[in-house]
């Protein structure tokens, strides 16, 4: 279990998952029940397209300032630190046993050496399994928290988009710049962030 990757993985996965799925979810929501356009090609069609609202959210800013995300990230980082400390303690204890055996091996009988080596081999396997299980458990919790985060944001955006007539909500991230340029007048990050934090503050009371 890598300490650095455990601490940073949640933020990375959250950004990647939201950036990849957010726009599609909002578009799907707004397209439900929408009838195909029967407008003739030309000016009327172009005017209708221009009237549709497209906005974007800066996901870097959103996650940096979203209190729910910060609380979950802190919880996961604390769990990662405890898991790392536990693993380090177990590893140190095992290394001490190995060192003790190496010091005494010359004076031990062949049967005792074989017995001790078999016991140490079993402990080494147990340590490896513990590490794998801890990593798997952390990954599962991380994925579950990421799903909750994604649902929390998209559920609000579906409602917000419908109330404001947004047909498409894009995301921008410096780490994943799918949008190369967007006029700042199209950004709704702050209004989304304010609403999400307000809702979360009510939950915590």
From TrEMBL:
Keyword set includes Coiled coil: yes
Residues passing through the membrane, by range: none
PROSITE patterns: PROKAR_LIPOPROTEIN
Keyword terms, alphabetized: Coiled coil, Signal
Keyword presence, Signal: yes
GO CC list: cytosol
Coiled coil: 73-133
UniProt signal peptide: 1-23
Gene Ontology molecular function: any one: unfolded protein binding
Annotated family: Belongs to the Skp family.
Name of the molecule in the record: Periplasmic chaperone for outer membrane proteins Skp
Source species: Parapedobacter luteus
């Amino acid at each position: 279990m890598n300490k650095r990757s455990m601490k940073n993985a949640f933020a990375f996965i959250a950004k990647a998952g939201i950036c990849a799925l957010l726009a599609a979810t909002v578009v799907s929501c707004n397209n439900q029940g929408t009838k195909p356009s029967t407008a003739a090609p030309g000016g009327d069609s172009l005017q209708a397209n221009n009237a549709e609202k497209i906005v974007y959210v800066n996901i870097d800013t959103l996650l940096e300032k979203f209190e729910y995300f910060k609380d979950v990230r802190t919880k996961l980082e604390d769990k990662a630190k405890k898991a790392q400390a536990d693993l380090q303690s177990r590893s140190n204890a095992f290394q001490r046993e190995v060192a003790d055996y190496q010091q005494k091996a010359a004076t031990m009988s062949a049967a005792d050496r074989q017995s001790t080596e078999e016991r140490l081999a079993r402990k080494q396997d147990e340590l490896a399994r513990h590490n794998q299980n801890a990593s798997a458990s952390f990954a599962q919790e991380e994925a579950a928290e990421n799903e909750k985060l994604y649902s929390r944001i998209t559920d609000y955006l579906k409602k917000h988009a419908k109330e404001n007539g947004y047909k498409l909500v894009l995301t921008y991230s410096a780490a994943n710049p799918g949008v190369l340029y967007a006029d700042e007048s199209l950004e709704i990050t702050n209004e989304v962030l304010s609403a999400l934090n307000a809702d979360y503050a009510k939950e915590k009371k």
